[in-house]
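[SOLVED] Need 3D model of a four-part complex

Original post:
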Amino acid sequence: MPGVDPRQHLLDYAEALFADHGPHGVTVREVARRARVDPALVHYYFGTKTALFEAVFTRRAEVLNAERLRSMDAYARRAGEHISVEGAVEAFLEPILRRSVEGDPGWKNYFRLVALVNNTPEWGGEMMTRYFDPVIRRLLDILRRCMPEARDVDLFWCYHFLSGALTLSLSQTGRIDRLSGGACDSADMEALHRRMIPFIAAGFRRVCQPQGEAHVA
Amino acid sequence: MPGVDPRQHLLDYAEALFADHGPHGVTVREVARRARVDPALVHYYFGTKTALFEAVFTRRAEVLNAERLRSMDAYARRAGEHISVEGAVEAFLEPILRRSVEGDPGWKNYFRLVALVNNTPEWGGEMMTRYFDPVIRRLLDILRRCMPEARDVDLFWCYHFLSGALTLSLSQTGRIDRLSGGACDSADMEALHRRMIPFIAAGFRRVCQPQGEAHVA
DNA sequence: GTCTATAACTGGATAGAC
DNA sequence: GTCTATCCAGTTATAGAC
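Solution:
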């Protein structure tokens, strides 16, 4: 393979395999075989299998986090006083949903991996915190401005529901396709986007702002 | 261990380990070691590691599904014309949340395992469908009566959000504890219950019944 | 039913030639 | 940087004694 960085090449295949089977379900040899790279080179580049896993997780996290912070800042500036729960959630999710809609297979694999990690006790609590907390705090800051009377514990729990709904939707298990007998397509990220924002925003309002539920911005 | 069924005993320890690390992260030897049972007996009782995993998953699914169907039927009878989205979701979730509140460690491990499976492409689509679809169809039947104008695709997507929010909440990764700096306790299933029902019900209404959002039952 | 022994194999990791 | 050869710990699974 001329002109290809073998390091990035390995990360791509490791990402896809880790997303399907989880780190324990993947062997270094299998990653190397798929990438048509010698198994010993995986250790040359990354040292250990665990380090390879961390490298996969880090690579896109940094790109994504930076963009999500920009997206929320831009929204807050743009909206000014007319800030809304829908707008905040939209700004938080947009960088993820846009990449999903665009269909880049690397990003789709990455999101499946995040979903798996998020729901696995062995890594979930620690890794998700380490990589994504700053972005979430920014979202909650904006939501506090929309709902000044919201209690922090309510905001945290509602974010937890958002996180679960989002990661399952990104995990692409084909679940909703089977459940609906083909009426829904788990790869249709446009359909997801249209429903997810109002669903989540309505939930936040109901729990965090029980009195003011009626006035939708 | 006198008077203990070694089969159930093995299932308990396998359940706990599978829930923590996923099937690939667990060895038959480790299950046997924890259960203080000879490794060869695992094969004697269950045949293969995969069969052990299926046995773990099946054992409680049957108990739980039967009770969830009863719970929803009882609610539909009791509520009659005054059926509500909140009530339907509550009836659907009650058998799960009650067991979580009661704190039986076996059930808590099982719920963590379901969360992990739900978000792993390797098994998620197939196993969740095979075990849980009848219960979900019953929920959607009741919701259709609450929201006659709801479209099926909307109901399926909203259920998907419910499923993601629920399984992440049951996965007990300690995520929300860290995120909230200790203000929330992921093991506090009462706190979960109080917020989850209104959050999910509001989301369903907003997406499936955009016109009638104002009149809460 | 239970345990010992072992077959047959695969895993991560490395030393060292090129 | 790349690849061959290999170490060795650990894997599922089973045969066969008790």
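Edit: Residues 6, 37-41, 44 of chain B lie near DNA strand C (CB under 10 Å from a C1').
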